[in-house]
Amino acid sequence: MQRELVDVTPCTDNCARILEAGEHLVLTVSPGNPYFSVSRLTILFQWAASKIRHVDVVVSDLEMTEATYLARGLEAGKARKKARADVRQMASRIRRARQAAGTPGLRVSEFGDWAGHPQYRRARAYVRQAMQDPAYRALYREGTRAAAKARMPAGWEPTEEQITAGSIHSEKALPFAVNAVGILGASQAVTAYSRPAPHFTYFFTPDSMFRAFPGQGYIGLRAREKEPQSPHPPGPEQHQGAQRLERSTTAGRPRGRATRRQTEQRAGAGKLSHGKGECGFGVTVGEFFRPAYRGHPAAGTQQRQDGLLGGRVGCRGVAAA
Fold it and tell me: Best exposed site among 22, 44, 206, 223 by fewest CB in 10 Å?
């Protein structure tokens, strides 16, 4: 493996074997998590594209992102507002990382886009069944508690009600951890996250009562903390040219406001139009969800229930590439 770019931690030897086969990888990404910077996403996209035949990026949707803030005690309106901002920001980061990695066609979707898929529903029902087991339920709630405490003041603890509110995040993410292989119609698949939590790795533990579906693997995947620098740093002439360009584009206008508009235009942020087939990643839904494999929700017409801004956005069916 290309250790100079990433650290890979398979849950089991079988997970390592499935990864080595290189058929399908699902990278799961969480808006609001500062770990997922453009530079780290770029490294992950480059590595995945070089090692795996089919790669999907699946992003936590608005409902999941909002649940994290509800678990931290935010009032519902503020939680929704912060979640919207986080999802927009992540849409921009993913778009820029795809371009920087040279993988503009990398397939990206949200967990909510798969809600109607039969294999996703099957896996979600299986997760709910596991939650009826007292031992796993305790592990599940502890995982939600730990996620809520992240980036909160030392000593802060969520209430039981807040843990319940935040638990929807894991409930919607776990189907891809245990059955991406079925959801994507692959013979083998590996799902990856930056720091796998015990209530996810549980399904890959030999003595667990509930196990992941056959052919499914799970790994921890992190870009190296020391991110690579350009082998050809810009010289003084390039710096001066960039400064002249900045001055020319902001002349006669408030610098902060103009820079923000330019950034949004370049990143595609803010280009969110309900009912017009566009999503937060700045491309049409049909273009964004072009299915080059079996099982993608864009292969048929459906209505997104909790898309990037939580409204109903029509997903047009598109022909396979």
Answer: 206
